[in-house]
Design a protein that fits this description.
single chain, 228 residues, alpha+beta, Glutaredoxin, four-stranded antiparallel β-sheet, 4 helices, globular
């Protein structure tokens, strides 16, 4: 957190809005058991490395878990979130790897051309709009999350994640291989509702090294996003 956290703490205590535009949010729904997923994870790693204005989140679903092995980073919250996006698209099935860019574009997560196009489209939308400011800072034995004022109503979500993991996969279609992944999500927490008024949430520490916040409307539209 270091210097950035200090800046964010000033924003929390003074009410100062963050000056930088919000990042494009790229969510990848994946599983270490899925043989089609490593190329998508490699693409997410590339996107994260080459685009400082992208917030990449690697979400491991639960429906690949089996009797032989339960995948260590699988989260019911990731499965629930993918089902939510499927409902928005009126799809009856989910799949891996699936990417969702900025809560809107849904496509196969290893499709690099579509990924580039979706990120560019999201950048244009962000540049044309007004983002809701968010800030995250340490607060005692937990975190303080501030959401600035704006328009509309939305939910505020907190994601904890680890920047990098290397895993020896013991089962599934990738059994016996070693996978390297970035920004692996460890927890997903709905902090509460946002109604256009500035709000502050005090949150216990979550099982992850880094943190991200999304302000997202029920239709998937992301109004604000940020990470530490």
């Amino acid at each position: 957190m270091k210097l950035l956290s200090g800046i964010l703490l000033i924003a929390l205590t003074t009410g100062t809005a963050l000056a930088a535009p919000r990042p494009v949010v790229v969510e990848l729904f994946t599983s270490q058991a899925c043989s089609d997923c490593p190329p998508a994870d490699a693409l997410l790693k590339q996107v994260q490395a080459q685009n400082p204005d992208v917030l990449a989140l690697d979400l491991h679903v639960t429906y690949w878990n089996g009797a032989a092995w339960t995948y260590p980073y699988s989260l019911q919250g990731a499965t629930d979130r993918q089902n939510y996006y499927a409902g928005l698209a009126q799809n009856s099935e989910v799949y891996t790897p699936e990417a969702v860019v900025d809560g809107e574009n849904q496509f196969v997560g290893s499709d690099s051309a579509t990924m580039r196009s979706a990120i560019d489209q999201a950048r244009a939308r962000i540049a044309a709009g007004k983002a809701v400011a968010v800030a995250i800072a340490p607060a005692g034995d937990g975190l303080m999350v501030r959401v600035g004022p704006g328009e509309d109503t939305a939910a505020v979500w907190l994601f904890s994640f680890d920047p990098r993991h290397t895993t020896n996969v013991l089962g599934g279609e990738n059994g016996g291989t070693t996978l390297s992944e970035v920004n692996v999500v460890r927890s997903i927490t709905r902090l509460g509702a946002w109604n256009g008024q500035a709000v502050v949430f005090k949150v216990p520490l979550q099982p992850g090294e880094e943190f991200a916040v999304l302000v997202q409307k029920p239709d998937g539209t992301i109004l604000g996003a940020g990470s530490n």
